[in-house]
Amino acid sequence: KMAAGEAAGRYRSSMGRSKDPSGLLISVIRTLSTSDDVEDRETEKGRLEEAYEKCDRDLDELIVQHYTELTTAIRTYQSITERITNSRNKIKQVKENLLSCKMLLHCKRDELRKLWIEGIEHKHVLNLLDEIENIKQVPQKLEQCMASKHYLNATDMLVSAVDSLEGPLLQVEGLSDLRLELHSKKMNMHLVLIDELHRHLYIKSTNRVGQRPKEKGRISSLVKDASSVPLMDVTNLSTPRKFLDTSQFGTPGSSSMRETSLLEIKEDAELDPEENSTAFMGILIKGLAKLKKIPETVKAIQERLEKELKQIVKRSTTQVADNGYQRGENLSQENQPR
């Protein structure tokens, strides 16, 4: 009995010191394990049941006293739990939607890339179609340029068209005839330019040599002295030697000398290309350079040099003879009384 009393005291003291349920349970187990008497255990059991009953009564009283607060707390807790559950479900749904959006964006990105590539391909095809349309008009435009002797524009047009036909448009079978035609014209274009160059070198540049200057008054005033020979004014003739003479290209009042480059020569479609013989020969040389026929041009000039110089001598002799005959006729007319 004394042991039971001591166990009950320890139980009460443990109840008073700690409110931890696990500590209380351990204390009860220790008390029961140290007790050897069944009666003491029954007594301890009874006391525990009494304590639990008292605890239930106190809990019921507290529930009755705080029913409103308890109900509110339970409802609040239920509301919080429902909100947390709904939030979790919404977050899960958002995650699923984000994954779905990510997949759709990947699909859209691939589709947009495909459309972008198709757009580039269509643009390239349209450019090729425009180029084909322009190239089909090249023969007609080339004929017009050749007729008006705008050889630089014709050369640029022909070289560009042949490069396109033998480059990006090489696989277009419908342009095979046009390709052969323009290629043949390109192969023979330099012959026309060389002929024009020789005409200006040897004929155009010397057509005024031997011509007597026209001044006011009667022609007889120039031939009063029978021993005098008409002078030939060749200072202003357009000769190949003067092509590099920069005095005519310099700015007024400037004494600086600079060489004229072929890159600076341009062709004006509205002016007569042969008006300036020097510039026209520069255009011819530039056209031959674009055709890559400079070696053939030099060779042709060397081969025809002797022949052309003999023709110049022949023409000059004929002009001098004609001028002498005309001068004699004029003198004989002046010696007449009338």
UniProtKB/TrEMBL annotation:
Q: Can you give the residue ranges of the Exocyst complex component Sec8 N-terminal domain?
A: 46-144
Residue ranges occupied by any Exocyst complex component Sec8 middle helical bundle domain in the UniProt entry: 273-323
A single GO BP: protein targeting to membrane
Q: What ranges does the record list as Polar residues composition bias?
A: 329-338
| Pfam families the UniProt entry points to | Sec8_C, Sec8_N
| Coiled-coil regions listed | 45-97
Q: Where is this region: Disordered?
A: 1-21, 316-338
Q: Please give the GO cellular component terms listed in this UniProt entry.
A: exocyst; growth cone membrane; synapse
Q: Which family does it belong to?
A: Belongs to the SEC8 family.
Relate the protein's function as given in its record.
Answer: Component of the exocyst complex involved in the docking of exocytic vesicles with fusion sites on the plasma membrane.
Output this protein's name: Exocyst complex component Sec8
